[in-house]
Amino acid sequence: MGMEAPAEVEDAVLLRAAADGDLGAVRVLYERHAPWLTARLMRRCNDREVVVDVVQDTFLAMWQDAATWRSDGEVAGWLWGIAFRRMVSRLRQRKQTVLMPEWDGAATGLLPAAEDQVLLDVEYGDLGTALRRLSPEFRAVVQACVLDGLTTREASRLLGVRENTVKTRLHRAKAQLRGSLADLRLEGLT
Amino acid sequence: MSTTTWHADPNLLRAYVEGRLDAVLSASLERHVDACAHCRSQIGPLVEVPVLEEAWSGIRTGIESGRLPLLVRLAQRLGLPEPTGILLAATASLRLTWLTGGLVTLCFVTLASILADGAALWPFLLVAPLVPVLGVAVSYGPAEEPFEALTVTTPYGRARLIMIRTLAVLTLTLPAAALLGLTLPGPAWVAVAWLGPALAMIPLLLALASLTGPRLAASLLSLGWTGLVLFAARDLPSTWPVEGTQQVAYLTLALLAAAFLWVRSQRTQQIGVAL
Amino acid sequence: MNVQLTGVAKSYGGTPALQDIDLEIGTGVTGLLGPNGAGKTTLLRIIATSIAPDRGEVRLLGHDPHRGHAELVAARRRLGYLPQELGYPADMSTFGFVEYLAVLKEWNDKRARQQEVRRVLGLVDLADLAGKRVSKLSGGQRRRVGLAQALLGDPALLVLDEPTTGLDPAQRATLHRTLSVAARQSSVLLSTHQTEDVAALCERVVVLAAGRIRFDGTVLDLVRSAEGQVWHTEEEVPGAAISWRTGSGRHRVVGGDPPPGAEPAEPTLEDAYLLMLGPEAVTPLPA
Asked: Residue C135, Cβ neighbours under 10 Å: how many?
């Protein structure tokens, strides 16, 4: 591991080779994508065994479905979709709690540096600040539906609450965010 | 909202991997990483190598070995030795499609016999013994086939391979057919009596196949049995094909076939190609 | 001696394929050279215990395979065989195929077996194609799969029927290296109808034609047998039994009397082979 994958070969090309049975292509794709997938999964579930299983399942699924992938969008995004859904279904089966990323910057001891502020502004703009102001009871649904891209049904299965509850909370969270954004504009932070 | 010129600082990435970033920052960073191959590659060295290697060996094994068919996996859970499972997995007639086809055919003929209300048992008596025979015939190829010629030279050997495949086919087909036979109208002993010709035809098939190859042997046997059953169906009682005298005849033929195979295998000139 | 054949003969129908074969093979790489139809495949099949001879005695690795099942299996345990034509069950992957044969060779422990399969696939440079279906491989790749399964377990006797078919020069070089390593402690017997293979790969050579052994010795000895009988001339020599035009524009003549103005040339293995077999070795061109 740690070998620099040749950057010239595109993911899509490798995927086609993998569909044809090339194990070497799978290995290169693995070296490119397994690390960040693993890191991202570990942020949501600190059970290492589960993460290893999910990563295995993801790449085996990639191998099996490689021929059916239509070249729409990035391979990276497609892989994350597979990985996260696998993890959600696995955690649901095991009734394990998902690790919620810590919301309070102060609690983690890491306050956004100037550079990070740039990052926040660049990716989410005001939304980032508004998210920080969100009430705690809304954080789980926003994390699941807004930040991780699950549907309300998938989120309800993950969080173990009824789908209606998810929808209501999401609705209220969005209202709160809209309010915060309006406030922010008033405060002249735009 | 262009992020093409911005890349994450290594410290920021490390903080992310180690879980020290809060939710919003993480989400922001993840949004960026989704689109930026450069930052994705930067995460590589930060993740524990043993974790990545462990997952990889599982993936590699999964791709290399592929998945054994469902039936074989079930059998392995019930105690079938793992290597034997691999040998059986490559058998055509142990695949689900073949077995379902056989089962469906058996159901049809059982139904036909039931509907004829005992007056015509011949559909069932015709098909039931042929299902295992055809299953065995399809499970291996003639000795001249290149792959068969290769398996002959292995320590396990072709003869033993054919034997376990035959056993597997019989284990799967006989009970199902027997159960269906119990639903037949008419005398109860018929439900078991059909096993006579079925079991007798197996050594006959193997013996014949050693001379003509399994496909031709199966065709000949099927023709012979069909002729016998249909001929009997015209004038003779419906249970004639499985009555006592006939069973003795089948048994004799089976013993002759077995003797033939035994003599053939004793002649050392054959080097395990008795079958 | 790992292989000893005495008075072996085999006929198909009425046609004799092998007659009076006396052969001994020890460690190292031995080439079996001969034209098509010479009986090479039949001989290799007898040594690989795929078929039995009509007459004669066979001893393999100290066992008599025709004296009971136990001896036969004992011999087969230390044998690796690549047949001339490779058959495989439909829709099997490369790894699956070699693993299947590993099971037939009594590798019952899953982990050890899979490691061994990976090892032999690595030896023939097919590790990356492990997941690919055998039916989708090229001819040369399929040959290498066949070679891989023959190499399982480092057999003491390796019997290879036309292993170089479909291999490009780079792959032949890899094959050479692999076989050289194997031949340090095993007997490698390979058949071919091309002299270049023997020259590149073998120390000893057995020339077989029309079912009989014509030569059995070192490659060097075979080459020397043509000494003094090969020439270069500027012009074509009418009536010469074996001659052809070389790349440099001159004519190479093998055998017979030296034509006028001829320059003696260094004999090659091919010259010696042609000389030994005469018209039998040369396939006639269509008229």
From this structure: 12
| One-character DSSP codes across C245-286 | E-TTS-EEEESSSPPTT-EE----HHHHHHHHHGGGTSPPPP
Contact partners, residue C66, CB within 8 Å, separation at least 6: B268, B269, B271, C52, C57, C58, C72
Q: At what angle do helices B23-35 and A23-42 cross, to 10 degrees?
A: 160
The pairing of beta strand C28-33 with beta strand C242-245: unpaired
Report the pLDDT value the prediction gives residue A190, as an integer from 0 to 100: 45
Mean of all residue pLDDT scores within chain B: 84
In order of A4, A68, B37, B66, C91, the CA distances from A63 in angstroms are 21, 10, 21, 11, 16
H helix intervals, chain A: 11-19, 23-42, 48-65, 75-94, 105-108, 114-123, 126-132, 136-141, 152-159, 163-186
pLDDT tens sequence across A30-65: 999 999 899 888 887 777 888 888 999 999 999 888
Distance CA(B101)–CA(B80), nearest Å, equals 24
Nearest Cα to A154, choosing from A172, A141, A135?
A: A141
Q: How far is CA C101 from the centre of its chain?
A: 21
Those residues with Cβ within 8 angstroms of residue B97's Cβ, 6 or more apart along the chain or in another chain: none
Q: What's the one-letter identity of residue C278?
A: G
Q: What is the ipTM of this complex?
A: 0.85
A23 reaches B (C-beta below 8 A):
yes
The pLDDT tens digits of the residues spanning C143-159 come to 999 999 999 999 999 99
**pLDDT of residue C164 exceeding 60:** yes
Q: Which residues of B touch A7 (CB under 8 A)?
A: 37
Residue A84 Cα to chain centre, angstroms: 7
Indicate if the pLDDT at residue B201 is higher than 60: yes
Count other C-beta atoms under 10 Å from residue C218's C-beta. Answer: 13
- Tell if the CB–CB gap between A21 and C127 is shorter than 8 Å: no
Distance CA C186, CA B114 (A): 66
3-state secondary structure of B42: helix
Contact C77, C69 (CB under 8 A): no
Identify how many contiguous H helices and E strands chain B contains and give both numbers. 14, 0
Please answer whether residues A76 and B34 qualify as being in contact, where contact means their C-beta atoms are separated by less than 8 angstroms.
yes
CA distance A95 to chain B (A): 22
- Which residues touch A91 (CB under 8 Å, ≥6 apart)? A45, A50, A98, A158
Q: What is the dihedral of CA B164, B167, B168, B170, to 10 degrees?
A: 160
How many residues does this entry show for chain B?
A: 275
Q: What interhelical angle do C110-123 and C139-150 show, nearest 10?
A: 130
Sign, Cα dihedral of C208, C214, C216, C221:
negative
**Chain A residues near residue B5 by CB distance under 8 angstroms:** none
In angstroms, what separates the C-alpha of C174 from chain A's closest C-alpha?
20
